[in-house]
Amino acid sequence: MLSLITIIVSWDATALSVALATITSQLQGTTFQSFWASIAFTLGVAVTQPIYASVSDVLGRKLPLYVSMVLFAVGSVIFATACNINVVVVGWLIQGLGGGGLDVLETIILTDITTLKERPRYQGVMSVSIASGVIGGPLVGGVFAAYVNWRWLGWINLPFVGSAALLSILFLRLRSIDMDFKTKVRRLDWMGFLLFTIGATAVALPLSWAGSLYPWGSWRTLVPLTIGCLVLAVFAFLERKAIEPMIPYRIFDNRTAIVSTIFSSVFQKSIAAVGDLPESLSILKDSSRAIDFIPELRTLDVSADLMDSVIDAYQKTFQMIWLVLACIAAVASLISFLVKDLTLEKEEVGRQAFQSS
């Protein structure tokens, strides 16, 4: 069940970037509308993940899991039946609102049902599922857009979501929280949810369009960015007083949690670049967008499996593991800055493979 969830979320996160040009052309969308379509899913996922995590701590895992499944399925249907690009944006945004819950809850549920010793093995299985979705998304997205129909990118999600929902109903057994439902709802950090959603959205949007739609120095970039930072500052202050804070301050007392969060942020930034890579390669090189970044995705698959095995075997030598990963990341970043000419096929393939590792 958890593997199906990771496949569909990672699948959709990468499929649109390949099919977006075809969708925009067929629906006669503008560049501005295409921009919103390209960030709608990712924005929905990023904003809702901490909210789902907080809600699941208070209400339990199953209710937010089922809500996220319904949102993901509804968004898929809206996307598949869209008659214009604006409806595509709405569909992908609703999918993102559901995908954020699916993405974070599969990790939380895995933590609930496994011991610390068992977790690396199951995380290895989840890594294969994620890599399968990330690799398959661009390929299937390109094939559907070019040879079948891009609407099947929405319809194909329904069997996966339905199967995951059925399996969770039949086999997922989690300990319920012994508290009245109304009491649980009152304990939720509603003000924190609102402030975080506004602040995170106001920060993410100008960072997305700066340098493309509007210059970095434009008021359209600076004003929402400033407002977003101020709202997030208010959110951080009020979290100290919340009964069930969305982001409890106690997590920052753990040095391992802080370092893991920083590295996870860097990794997610690399994954987010996958959305822009196909379009960039198609502009700079006369080649297939879906095929061109297979080296990055395939190496991501192999390196994830390898590191899960290493962690499982050498749990007492984490400092050496972190050091090796940091060195690889630093060298990969340096290579990214040094690569100037994307017409050199071998250099580009090598850079992608090394960076994704």
From TrEMBL:
Its main location: membrane. This is MFS general substrate transporter. It comes from Aspergillus sclerotiicarbonarius (strain CBS 121057 / IBT 28362). GO terms for molecular function: transmembrane transporter activity. Residues 1-357 form the Major facilitator superfamily (MFS) profile domain. PROSITE patterns: MFS. GO terms for cellular component: endomembrane system; plasma membrane. The keyword Thylakoid does not apply. Keywords: Membrane, Transmembrane, Transmembrane helix. It comes from the Eukaryota. It is a multi-pass membrane protein. It is found in: Membrane. InterPro entries: MFS, MFS_dom, MFS_trans_sf. It holds the Pfam family MFS_1.
